[in-house]
Amino acid sequence: MMSKIDQANQEAVQRMMQSRPVLVDIGRAKDVIPGMKENLFLHAGPPITWERMSGPLKGAIIGGLIYERMAKNAGEAEAAAAAGRVEFAPCHHYNAVGPMAGVITPSQAVFMIEDKQWGGFTYSNMNEGYGKVLRYGAYDDEVLRRLRWLDEVYAPVVKEALLLSGGIDIKTIIAQALHMGDDGHNRNRATTSLFIRAIASAIVETEYGKKRVYDTPRPDLTNICPFFKETRPAAAAEVLAFMHGNDLTALNAIMASCKSMALAAHGIEHSTLVTTMARNGTDFGIRVSSTGEKWFTAPANVPDGLYFSGFKSSDANRDIGDSVITETVGIGGFAMAAAPAIVSFIGGKPAAAFEATQEMYEITVAENTNFNIPALDFRGTPTGIDVRKVVEKGILPRINTGIAHREPGIGQVGAGIVLPPMECFIEALKELAR
Amino acid sequence: MMSKIDQANQEAVQRMMQSRPVLVDIGRAKDVIPGMKENLFLHAGPPITWERMSGPLKGAIIGGLIYERMAKNAGEAEAAAAAGRVEFAPCHHYNAVGPMAGVITPSQAVFMIEDKQWGGFTYSNMNEGYGKVLRYGAYDDEVLRRLRWLDEVYAPVVKEALLLSGGIDIKTIIAQALHMGDDGHNRNRATTSLFIRAIASAIVETEYGKKRVYDTPRPDLTNICPFFKETRPAAAAEVLAFMHGNDLTALNAIMASCKSMALAAHGIEHSTLVTTMARNGTDFGIRVSSTGEKWFTAPANVPDGLYFSGFKSSDANRDIGDSVITETVGIGGFAMAAAPAIVSFIGGKPAAAFEATQEMYEITVAENTNFNIPALDFRGTPTGIDVRKVVEKGILPRINTGIAHREPGIGQVGAGIVLPPMECFIEALKELAR
Hints:
In chain A, 36% of the residues lie in helices and 19% in strands. By secondary structure, chain A is α+β, with helices and mostly antiparallel strands.
């Protein structure tokens, strides 16, 4: 007979898999995220004070303060943060998620994901692309100009297209992308391609997309569309070019969709299922279905991976970001067997990708009914991490991740694999035993 | 020491892999294909007379005659064809290729692929989508309306976008798509997604794309874009919707690009490399690098595969189409290990996809330097079929294919796998021995 805990875990994982996240709209964080306010900055991972923040998170906060015109430069921004002129809270406390530093400031545009099965909304910001970007702790003029363009050109066009088209079913996109070489976390070429083709016609038909927006400087898109050199194209063309130039275009909407799934599994009495994993660049934290809002934290590890030219492992910050929400619901590192080409980005051999997925069946309670892997005979991905199994078997969840430079202001330096600290799971198990 | 033949084969396969096909333009067949004329219809496969044509090829010829206004109905068209009022020739004789029936009529729009390495152009028509389409032998009003829309709305928009953007590098798209679950022949979800995102911005910026073309009836796109119900959208939005609704959007450009590669390997003295494989629905034919324009033909086999609801294996026509040009240059069935999800479309188990690729290394002379398969540790695809090896080892090239109904007027009934007849290779080897 199934134990009370096993029954609870089955209920939780079924709810997780039944969640039906649809990207329906875009709004300003302070207008649409309940509880969001003018002087509140959200960040990735468990709660943390300014003093304990790592370089990349501090860098993103500095950039956010300048972007919000609460500071003129890095010095002013650091002083403002140290003086407590802005409050900090985890994205997760507001049903939001953000990759890497995960900083969401009040006036930023956010994706709104509606769970069509269980109701409610989850949120994430727009993805800025690779390299020197706010979420990796960079904050120079180029970074801030790009953020401005995202909020003033990109977001309004995509919002109008979403309303016109009736939204994008993100779960279907993830399912297809796992048949197209993506893991849904580090490799998002397929999700992004499917996202673009799903919304392209609607983007063409937006009113805002027809405009040529001369008053907002645009990021340099001439390497993507050389014909942009001649004249400023319509906003719709710029938006589609930016999407094409950024294989992570779909990532943030996928993360918010995964948050929707994880949320559906949260709050089930007796369940030992992990419903949050997140890192702030200093600590790794988890939350569990039956233990409410309590975080179980421990120092985050440093990822192991491949570095961009000019960077090395001693440049790496500790593990950072909410993107591990993907592994929490059975994709990302758990679906690596779907994405053997990912090793050219994170290192290792394709065989290791298959082993990673195989191992994750040991610590999960279900095979996903939505997401499966052709090369494993269409077996469902390992889904729903059981805290008990992690501790008993001594097997930690495998996480695919980007790597941020440890200093503020620099950005992404590589990508790789990382494990959470076992202490989080041991502490959670102790709490569950109480 | 390498034999004269082996040296010639290496030269041929290197030329094949160095070919750099870029989709640069679109034109009317009679205006751009050298030698094309008003009363000439091109078709797939080796040469064939009207009398010996199979049902789907006859159906496509009938449709082509009505489309060209050379006949008012099927009866008139059959009489015209039987009376010799139109000439027939293989697409391959004009450096063109067409999927399935492969009928290219004088006024149809064709993709123009330029080989940036070796010079020269290759051609293919626009892809019509799935099911009831001319290339599968259907010719009712819906089929003809769609062809009209392709020539009058779709082609002009895509042409303008190609000229604006400077063209699309198809080889890069194929290489990426093999890391995204495509084989490049039967499964083209990734190539099509990459094609769409590469050209979307340029489509937005075309002048023709901004028009609402009310005088050409459009295919029903409301299942793809429900918001089209309200009003007729801009041509650019229709074009992007049609592309999104058809995972074979990129196929014909890929085929013409493969033709470019095969052409580069043709005409090398002493080479035993296969440079053409093609079927007209009655005969399978091959041509070899060092034996000029001579075809070696034998009756085509019937494919083995999965059938759409309501159809069965006795409905299947013999193997048909020029799309086997993909296998000729090392993708399609030869790259099946890249596309394990394809088995849900053609039948069998994912393991068989890996075996298919492994076996093809036995009959080929190179591992492709452009196209590789992540799950096989990024090994290059088996490329360059050596007639000698096929005959000596008794191993035939594996071909992924669509299945046409044997009667004219019906269309696609399934998809599967097929083998060429061994006689073609034996006859070629005899000729080579002379």
